[in-house]
Fold:
Amino acid sequence: MHPANPVVAHRGAWKKTGLPENSIASLKQAITLGCGGSEFDVRMTIDDSLVINHDPAFKGMPIDKSTYTQLTAVKLTNGETMPTLRQYLEAGLQNNKSTQLVIEIKPSDISKDRGREMAAKTVAVVQMLKAEKRVTYISFDIDILRKIESIDAKAITQLLDGSKNPAELKAEKIDGADYHISVFKMHPEWIAMAKQNKIILNVWTVNEDADMDWCIENKFDFITTNEPERLRERLKQ
Structure:
């Protein structure tokens, strides 16, 4: 990713287009728009398939207690099948010159160990596709990020939960603070601290014009939004 293009489409570019969030279609739309990044969410089924879905359940089926076959029997609203991580990354690597693939690994509802297992499996898929340079990993669970760093020290990792200041992240070898905008407004000194410590600044989920302007003025490296088209317009201004 490059700070010249800080726009990260949150769950793909879905809102303006009416596409389902986290669909391959919303990812391709983010790539077509030329977003700096497109974020998506990874969960694991009971039979250890890594799938792309934000919520813990899909159409009433808890993902971590359902099989891949059960989940893919029901289609997304655009007729797509719930994608696997591999399918999603393969689609995201096609005809893509500038959009980073931002993988959010959801904490496991079953156990911390299962979260670490998800992290290891996710890195294995990325490495198999030779996509390491195109991927950023984010999570609310710091142990998931620690696991990723232990497997691939060059991996770009960002914490989501707002619990650590940038100096603490640096000590943990975590590369970025990807925090809710309210966290940065409560701790504006963290912005300068991040720049001082070479910690990537990412902020979510920024949908209002005034918030977009505040993030642009404060020179965030990345701004995660449900309104990538509008953020691009404001950046041009």
In short: The chain has a mean pLDDT of 97. DSSP finds ten helices and eleven strands in the chain. Residues 7-178 form a domain with the TIM Barrel fold (CATH 3.20.20.190). The first strand starts at residue 7 and ends at 9.
